[in-house]
Here is the input.
Amino acid sequence: MNVQPRKQLARMRLGVTRGRSRRAGLVAVISWVALSVPSLVTATHEADHRFMVEGYVCGTDGKPVADLDVLVKDTKISYGQIVKTDGYGYYKATFHLHNDNLGDSLLVEARGEQQNHKIQFDPKDLESDRKIQVNFGAGCDASSPPAWLWWGGGAVAAAAGGIVAMKLARLQRKQDRGRGKSQGKRKI
Here is the structure.
């Protein structure tokens, strides 16, 4: 019985298995990064068709109110959204509006308090974000970024660190292999 072909077959299978597991690992890492960064994955309207209403909701003690419903409504076209505040009291609603919506009345309601605003933007500016900030309560730390920004930044930093670590490990393996081949072949 010839053992040599069996060893070759086993090595070939092992190589295929390693290749598949590496690909599966790579796909898993890429999927994790893509799902961890919502701003890169979700589709949005072009800037000239997007209008954002954002702000913070704080209690009477000046602390952010988390998990609170905020109603944002364009009263002229009878379209509205209910969004929730995050752990920092931050909320954001995005509307698909056109230039003819300029001047529409905007109703924003949180904790039973209503604020009326007019939709304002420069119709000639097709690049800048069209948005308004509407805050409720006093003492909110409006300078703190939303939580998804921290998580997204952390995921990007972790991915970049992983890539650098993989490259360094590969370089180290190549150097180790080179040392192994040259040992004992030095000229004196």
